[in-house]
Amino acid sequence: MTHSIDVLKRAALLTVLLLAGTFSATYAQLGVGRPVGQTIVDGIIAKIDNQIVLRSDLETIMAQEKARAEGKPLPPDMQCRVLQSLALNKLLLAKAETDSVVVEDSQVKGELDRRMNYFAQQIGSEKKLEEYYNKPIKQLKEDLRSQVKEQLVQQKMQEQISGKVTVTPREVRQFFNRIPKDSLPYYSTEVEVGQIIKFAKVNTTAKQAAQAKLNDLRARILAGESFETLAKQFSEDPGSGAQGGYLGFFGRKELVPEYEAAALRLDPGGLSPVVESQFGFHLIQLIERKGDKYSTRHILIKPTTGSTDVNEAAKELTNLRRRILADSITFAKAAKDNSDDKQSGANGGLLQNREDGSSYLPLDKLDPAIFFTIDTMKVGHVTPPMPYRTDDGKDAMRIIWLKSNTPPHQANFKDDYQKLAQAALSEKKNKALDEWFEKNRGSVFIEVDPQYGGCKLLNTVN
Predict the structure, then answer these.
(1) Is the residue at 418 inside a domain?
(2) Distance between CA atoms of 101 and 50, rounded to whole angstroms?
(3) What is the CA radius of gyration of the chain?
(4) Of 103, 170, 317, 429, which sits with the fewest C-beta atoms within 10 Å of its C-beta?
(5) Structural element, H or E, at residue 386
(6) Which structural domain range is residue 376 located in?
(7) CB neighbours of 201 closer than 8 A, spacing ≥ 6?
C-alpha cells in the first residue's frame, strides 16, 4: 500500500491536471513560465478512444513539477504518475462523450472570464496582457476555450464518480496512524486570515454623467444610427464592444437580474431605457429569442474612474468591526452577510489556499499587503477599515481578521486535523477514481507509446 502521505502529493497533482492547476496548465498553454528558446518536442504518446495525450502535455506538467520541487529530485515514478493522471482525464472525456455529459457555454464563459481576470492581475492589467501576447483578450479566450471546456467536463465527470464520497473522524484517525512517524510532513508558519470588503460607492455626479451619455446614444440610435457602430465606438465592455455589443445567447438567470429583466421586457429589435447593474449602466437591444434562451447586444458605460466615495464603505465596516469586537456578531457571519467579495464572503471571509483549498496560508506566500498588515497583529484582532484596490481596479475598503497563527511544527492530529481530513478524503476519492478507471478502461480503446509501457496502469491494451 502506498504511504498515506503520498496522497497529499497525488491530490495536488490531480488538482493541477483536472483544474489546470487552477491556472498553471493554462499558463503553460499560453507560454507563461516556459524558458525562452525552449521547444517541447510534440507527438502522440497515448490514445484513449478519440482522445489523445501529447508529449507536450506530459513535458509541460513535468516541467511544472520540477519547478515546484525547487531543485530537489522528483520521485522516480513521477513521469508515470503524471501520464496515468493524464490518461485518466482523457478517459473521463471519452466516457463523458458516450454518456452525453456536457457543460453549458455560460459556465465555460464564466471560467474563461475568471482566468483572464487572474492573468490580468498577475501581469498588471488587461492591456498589458494583450500587449504581452499581442492578442486581444477575446482571442486569448478563444485560444483557451476548448481546453477550459475539457477541464470543466472532466470536473463534472469526476464529481459524478466521487462527489458523494465523505470521510468520518475515525477514518481520518486511521489515515493519520498509517503515516510513518518519520514521514510526517513539517509545516512552516501558517495563518488563517479573513477579510470583509465593501466597494466604494460611485458618487451621484458620476452616475448621472454615465446615464446622460447613454441617453444621448439611445436618442442617436432611435434617430437611425447603427447600434453596432456606436457600441464599437463607445462601449466600455472590452469583450462585446468590438463585436458591436453582441453578447450571444443566454438562458434564464445566466446574466445579472437587472439586465435580464430589462432584456426580456423587450420585443426583438426593441431598445431598453438605461439600466444599472453591478457592472455599470447598460443600453440593451434584444435581438431574438429561441425557447428559453435570448440574444442581446448592449453598450456599457461605467462611471468615471476616480469618482468613487469610500466614506460610506468605511462607515459600514467601522460599524461591523464594532459589533464583531463586542461579540454581537461573528466575523464569519458578518462576512457572509455583508462582504462585497462573494468568494471569501461565502467562506466566512477566510482567504483560501489555492494549493490545497484549505484556509491555512503559508506566511511566505502571503500577499505583501496582508503580510505587513498582520505581521504585528495578535490572533483575534480585527483591523480598522483600510483602503483596498480590487483585482479589477475597483476602489474599496476592507477590514482584516487574524484568525490563527500556527508556528512551524511537524504534523499532528490535533493541530492539523483539517489538512489530514482533506488528505484522507482525497485518498478515498482517488480510490474511487482508480476503481472507476479499472472498471471502465476495458470499454475504450487504449494505446500507449511503447516508450511508456512501464507505466503499469496503462500496460493492458484493450
Answers:
(1) yes
(2) 16
(3) 25
(4) 170
(5) strand 386-389
(6) 187-200+310-410
(7) 308, 309, 312, 313
- What is the rounded CA–CA span in Å between residue 91 and residue 140? 27
Residue 440, C-alpha cell as written in the block? 471502465
Q: Residue for cell digits 524558458?
A: 35
- In the DSSP assignment, the letter for residue 353 is -
Q: Grid coordinates standing for 401?
A: 481578521
Question: What cell does 271 get?
Answer: 431598445
Which band of pLDDT confidence, cut at 50, 70 and 90, is reported for residue 31? very low
Q: What is the pLDDT, as a whole number, of residue 127?
A: 80
Summarised one tens digit per residue, pLDDT across range 217-254 is: 999 999 999 999 999 999 998 778 888 999 888 888 88
- Of residues 32, 31, 33, 52, the one with CA closest to residue 43: 52
Q: What average pLDDT score do residues 452-457 get?
A: 75
- Structural contact between residues 225 and 273, judged by C-beta atoms closer than 8 angstroms: no
CA distances, 248 to each of 3, 242, 256 (Å): 50, 13, 15
DSSP 134-196: TS-HHHHHHHHHHHHHHHHHHHHHHHHHHTT----HHHHHHHHHHS-GGG--EE--EEEEEEE
Q: Which residue has the higher pLDDT, 402 or 279?
A: 402
Instruction: Point out the domain boundary residue: 301, 328, 351.
Output: 301
Nearest to 455 by CA among 19, 27, 46: 46
Pairing of strands 201-202, 190-199: unpaired
Pick from 301, 324, 346: which residue ends a domain? Answer: 301
**Alpha carbon 129 to chain centroid distance?**
18
pLDDT, average across residues 300-316: 79
Q: Output the pTM of the full model.
A: 0.56
- pLDDT grade for 152, boundaries at 50, 70 and 90: very high
